[in-house]
């Protein structure tokens, strides 16, 4: 019995071995699977060389083009006027901004005028006798002398004798003393040099104003300037009068300005040149932060692509017969996101967007929008 069982087991093992061997032989003869070729879809663009405008981004704060810092040259009590001296108060050209009490100085002016009048009146008898030919003009001057008005200019002296006589009596020195006092009297009132608005007020009515004290600031709110720093390489290209596109930080409003001035010197520390952009708009306020785009140069026969499409060795990928290849290009200007290239022939098919892991010889195919996508884009 034992021998029979062992014989059966042996037969089963032999049959199993034969079947396993046949299976191995069958698997060995099967063809190996061929890995499918991976063809990446890429976005392409056809080169068409044109004239590229170089636009430099810049930014800065607005300041009023017409600005006056108000200082006192005299001392006295600040007297109120028709308008309050407060920030935001507007004034027309010629209106009084600040009026300082000048009653004491006014009395000194009137006293000096009176002395001049008396001095001229005292020499009239001598003029009638010794200089009858000039008596009439001095008599006319004396009759037109008005203490309530500005002192008129002395009559022109035609001879040395007349000059010596008038000067020797102290008339000329008295006249210039009066004019000096009158000039100082005018400084007790500060007149608006242009129509504008008060942006800073450091004194109020009744304040004792001292000589040299700052009183406030006055600006013209209609025209502003923005100072920007440009690379020295564009010093000879940037032109006065060039239009500039300006936007606010939120990109919700845009303005048109122009280059009003360009500094003649270069900053030794930053190697930049300062340009001033003039802009006028009713919505602008002093201190606003704006961004500017300056058109500084035009490059002919060039293209503009994303910076990440330019390889480290100044080459770009092109598509030839469904394969990627590289060609050399000449970069002439870099911005934050773009690069301007020359020496790329017209009609060359280049990548429009980067391809991860791209290499020369990679099999690619151009992206073709579906019909549904084209219809939807047409509807939009």
Automatic annotation (TrEMBL):
<protein>
    <submittedName>
        <fullName>HlyD family efflux transporter periplasmic adaptor subunit</fullName>
    </submittedName>
</protein>
<dbReference type="GO" id="GO:0015562">
    <property type="term" value="F:efflux transmembrane transporter activity"/>
</dbReference>
<feature type="domain" description="Multidrug resistance protein MdtA-like barrel-sandwich hybrid">
    <location>
        <begin position="67"/>
        <end position="215"/>
    </location>
</feature>
<dbReference type="GO" id="GO:1990281">
    <property type="term" value="C:efflux pump complex"/>
</dbReference>
<dbReference type="Pfam" id="PF25917">
    <property type="entry name" value="BSH_RND"/>
</dbReference>
<dbReference type="InterPro" id="IPR058625">
    <property type="entry name" value="MdtA-like_BSH"/>
</dbReference>
